[in-house]
Amino acid sequence: MPDLIRTGIGFDSHRFAEGRDLILGGVRIEHVAGLDGHSDADVLCHAISDALLGAVAEGDIGTHFPDTDPAWKDADSILLLRACAELVRSTDADIHNVDATVMAEAPKLAPHIRDICDSLAAALDLPADRVSVKATTLEQMGSLGRGEGIGVLAIATVSQKVAE
Ligand code: MG
Question: Is the pLDDT of residue 164 over 90?
């Protein structure tokens, strides 16, 4: 059977909330606030999950893990990401790589990028060099630029066996 190369895109954003831990890519990062959400609000895991599901046209993270379901309250999103990767593979697809850009005025993510990539690679069962995470600021423009929250844009590429 031939392979079909498919890509998916994901976007997510969460606002900051005091009194919560900041979790990005399954890594806890020291900051004055965490992100608000039904789960652990790991915006990076959510965006990559949506990119993976998008690559195989399997809806989005809300389809599979609805935030109205108490089972996912304070859920560990790195486990949801792992479940999404398994779902992708169950459609006869191999995950090639994921790439993400985190948009945040603060905190500075450079010191944490290696840990975050390692954490994501472990969850996705991929070599570390197939996982890329970058960070940028919004130059103080708009809500993310005012530091009201964090946004993430992600892309995933898979190859899927298809019938001839
Ligand atoms: Mg989310």
Answer: no
Chain centroid, CA 36 distance in Å: 15
Give the pairing of strands 93-103 and 22-24.
unpaired
Ion ligand 1 — residues with CB under 5 Å? 12, 46
User: How many angstroms is it from 1 CA to the middle of ligand 1?
Assistant: 36
Ligand 1 midpoint to CA 151 (Å): 9
Q: How far is the CA of 34 from the centre of ligand 1 (A)?
A: 13
Q: Over the stretch 99-135, which tens digit does the pLDDT of each residue have?
A: 999 999 999 999 999 999 999 999 999 999 999 999 9
pLDDT band at 49 (very low <50, low <70, confident <90, very high): very high
pTM of the model: 0.95
User: Is the predicted pLDDT of residue 74 greater than 80, yes or no?
Assistant: no
